[in-house]
Design a protein that fits this description.
The protein has 591 residues and is an alpha+beta fold. Strands 4, 9, 10, 11, 24, 28 and 29 form a seven-stranded antiparallel β-sheet that branches. Among the domains are: 97 residues; 106 residues, Double Stranded RNA Binding Domain (2-Layer Sandwich); 98 residues. The chain is built from eleven helices and 31 strands. The relative contact order is 0.15. The longest helix has 30 residues. α3 packs across α4 and α5 packs antiparallel against α8.
Length: 591
């Protein structure tokens, strides 16, 4: 007869995984790892949202980082440290931390439940000698008085008699044990909210001019939600500091208005879970219309953002005797050897002078470039810095100042009919002088001041200080004909069969549309966190064990670390009638 060797059963990895997830050291390692890589994600530049997913754009972005990180650039990129918060390993680490927190919490549930429902009411007598929170004093004349005092202080008391001694177990705020569970639950909710936000969150920025609308998303559904900008307003101080941006807007659904509201920086407009924030403001826009006169139809009508700039030199020209011949800000319309310029006719003798502006050799300032056209034996040839004067050809030129006009090159613009009667399109240069930007002081009236920085200004971004100009905004169109069209709002000009009308200056608003289904999780997590911390620190559970003999009463207990439980024990003893309870507490404390 031989003994059979038992065959090992199939290996079960679940106990090992559970032990790992419930290991506190493992949780600390995960938290430390996430903290370190999160710090790296803050310190290292991260791939912009508009670049992520485009391999060519990412390659260009990485080339720009090589100036700083050199040969380490590719290593950092392969490790995912340029895109930490979107890296797969970061998401896995967060998931492991969530699983660890949940496992640790669930692992404590049985013991915490037993402690809550069936606490240990009888402890060995040695506990009264070694407990950290302990006190002994003379037994009151009425040995049962301590029990009554405990009940009066809302302790739940259990009594046990053994021989000549009476044992008490008193429990107060037993429900406070849920405080730690609430804080753990809050951490889980925060992490889950981050995951939900990443997976289901929606965010899009719409850049809209007044009177235009756009779909919230690009699904192409005719019935989808649209945003229409009715009025965009930017308020600025005298020094050009932004005071407030706000946009009056309408939300449309199925072609009808479902909400009319005003969105500001700190006051978003909300509808069906979507939030519409004011994210940016841009004041240099122009609405332009082109009409075909023979047919009467409008062939072009657009709201254009003049987001580029063109130099506008302010020039004075005098003759040899110092008499002023011309002083004006020139509108530059053609490009010659990296300098934008225009031809000026001298009123006194009709001499034709080409005047332009170009950056200096350092690229920091601008130069005025002047040369004379024609066959004059003493031609004008000058290059002047801002504020500088120069003489040539019997004339004096002064470069008084330089303005920056908002401008844009518009392609596919309708041009007058060709010689064979066909229509044509081409590229024109649009510039605007006397352009106002926002309103001063929040008073609501638009001002006629020009800001030299023509970019779209995001929330919190400062704007260049204004310089005062006079007159209505004037749109200058170069490339339609031989002359520059200069139109004020409402004015039209006919070139060939086309009528060009400047309908007016318009403002643009940047509206950030967000929908984040994690909001409720975040609010719930914040509430659980505050409630759990408040319970843990301000109403901690108190458990007290007492041994009462004929001449001596011994107390030992457990309470939160912020509670001076020994002082509370002394007060309970004194209230029960012990003559030396407070004295004993003082002596024990000093020892």
């Amino acid at each position: 007869m031989t003994d059979r060797v038992p065959r090992p059963g199939p290996w079960n990895p679940l106990p090992a995984v559970w032990r790992l997830l419930t290991n506190v050291r493992w949780a600390i390692v995960l938290i430390a790892f996430l903290a370190v890589v999160g710090l790296l994600g803050v310190l290292l530049p991260q791939i912009p949202d508009g670049v992520r997913g485009d391999s060519e754009a990412v390659s260009v972005w990485l080339d720009a980082q090589r100036e700083k990180y050199g040969i380490l650039t590719d290593v950092i990129h392969r490790l995912g440290l340029f895109d930490v918060f979107h890296a797969r390993w970061f998401a896995v680490s967060l998931g492991l931390l969530v699983a660890s927190i949940i496992a640790c919490t669930l692992n404590r549930v049985p013991s915490s439940w037993r402690s809550l429902r069936r606490p240990q009411t009888r402890l060995p007598d040695t506990y009264f000698e070694r407990a950290q929170q302990r006190l002994s004093f003379t037994t009151p004349a009425d040995a049962s008085a301590l029990e009554a005092v405990l009940r009066r202080h809302r302790y739940r008391v259990e009594r046990l008699e053994e021989g000549q001694a009476v044992y008490l177990f008193a429990d107060r705020f037993s429900w406070a044990q849920v405080g730690s569970f609430l804080t753990h639950l809050a951490l889980v909710l925060f992490i889950v909210a981050a995951i939900v936000s990443e997976l289901t969150g929606f965010s899009q920025t719409l850049f809209l001019a007044e009177g235009t609308s756009a779909s919230v998303n690009s699904s192409g559904d005719a019935d989808q939600m649209r945003v229409e900008v009715i009025d965009a307003v930017g308020y600025f101080s005298e020094q050009g500091q932004p005071l407030d941006y706000r946009t009056e807007m309408a939300i449309l659904q199925e072609g009808r208005e479902v909400k009319h509201c005003t969105a500001s920086v700190n006051g978003p407009c909300t509808y069906e879970g979507y939030r519409f924030h004011q994210a940016a403001y841009f004041g240099f826009g122009a609405e332009l219309q082109v009409r075909d006169l023979p047919t009467g139809s409008v062939v072009y009508r657009e709201l254009l953002a003049l987001a580029d700039t063109m130099p506008g030199p302010h020039v004075a020209i005098r003759d040899g005797d110092g008499r002023l011949l011309l002083e004006e800000m020139l509108v530059l319309t053609n490009l010659v050897e990296s300098a934008y310029g225009t031809t000026v006719a001298i009123p006194s003798d009709g001499r034709r002078i080409w005047i332009g502006a170009k950056p200096d050799s350092a690229g920091d300032d601008w130069q005025l470039v002047v040369f004379e056209l024609g066959d004059n034996p003493d031609p004008v040839r000058l290059a002047l810095a801002v504020g500088e004067k120069g003489r040539a050809g019997g004339l004096e030129f002064e470069f008084l100042s330089l303005s920056r006009l908002p401008a844009t090159f518009e392609q596919g613009f309708p041009l007058p009919s060709t010689t064979d009667g066909g229509s044509a399109t081409g590229t024109v240069l649009l510039q605007m002088e006397n352009a106002g930007y926002g309103s001063l002081g929040g008073g609501g009236a638009h001002h006629s001041q020009y800001y030299s920085d023509c970019r779209c200004h995001e929330v919190g971004e400062a704007v260049s200080a204004p310089s005062t100009v006079d007159g209505p905004p004037t749109l200058l169109i170069s490339g339609v004909g031989s002359d520059v069209l200069a139109l004020v709002p409402g004015e039209s000009s006919v070139v060939g069969d086309y009528q060009y009308t400047f309908l007016g200056q318009r403002e643009f608003a940047g509206i950030e549309v967000k929908r984040d289904q994690s909001d409720n999780l975040i609010w719930a997590g914040a509430g659980f966190l505050l409630l759990g911390l408040g319970i843990t620190f301000y109403v901690p559970r108190r458990r007290l064990w007492a041994k009462i003999t004929g001449d001596r009463t011994y107390l030992a207990g457990v309470a939160g670390h912020l509670a001076n439980f020994r002082r509370e024990m002394a007060k309970l003893g004194a209230e029960a009638g012990s003559p030396d309870a407070l004295k004993e507490e003082t002596q024990d404390g000093s020892s």
